[in-house]
Fold this sequence. Notes:
Elements: H1 2-17, E1 22-24, E2 32-33, E3 38-41, E4 44-50, E5 53-59, E6 70-75, E7 81-99, E8 105-114, E9 120-130, E10 135-153, E11 166-173, H2 178-197
Antiparallel strand pairs: 1-11, 2-5, 3-4, 4-7, 5-6, 6-11, 7-10, 7-11, 8-9, 8-10, 9-10
Helix pairs in contact: 1-2
Amino acid sequence: xxxxxxxxxxxxxxxxxxxxxxxxxxxxxxxxxxxxxxxxxxxxxxxxxxxxxxxxxxxxxxxxxxxxxxxxxxxxxxxxxxxxxxxxxxxxxxxxxxxxxxxxxxxxxxxxxxxxxxxxxxxxxxxxxxxxxxxxxxxxxxxxxxxxxxxxxxxxxxxxxxxxxxxxxxxxxxxxxxxxxxxxxxxxxxxxxxxxxx
Length: 198
């Protein structure tokens, strides 16, 4: 029983330590344009290029579910993109985003995925739901490893919102499966019970 317990505990702690092998909170470097910027964290490299007017480590939207504090904030025009090139291929990542819409937005962002040769290998759209003064969403990907992504943004009615702003935050890599998280929780609960009975 003791051996099984320690095996479960070791596995659980290893799993917990992998929670977001890295999370870019967008405050890793001083405020600056994202175009040509490379950010390194926990052995991961991210290089940004953009045709949009976007800033890294800029004040993000308040009271957001998937964003908090500094973010990548910009003002895209139609058909312009924010590209993120990964230093090594990624197969599991997510990020939160907002757009300055006043209601729910179907297909708020489009995320195109590319391989090491620059060939497009897939594309998904993500919706955003109305929050206080913006629409917010979470993009998740798990699948074949990709080397880069290009994000395009829906354009609101500029008569309602001439700023057409967006924000991206909390780019997390290596998100564990829910079952792994549950197992980690069970092992930690077992540890608490064991300490209580001792």
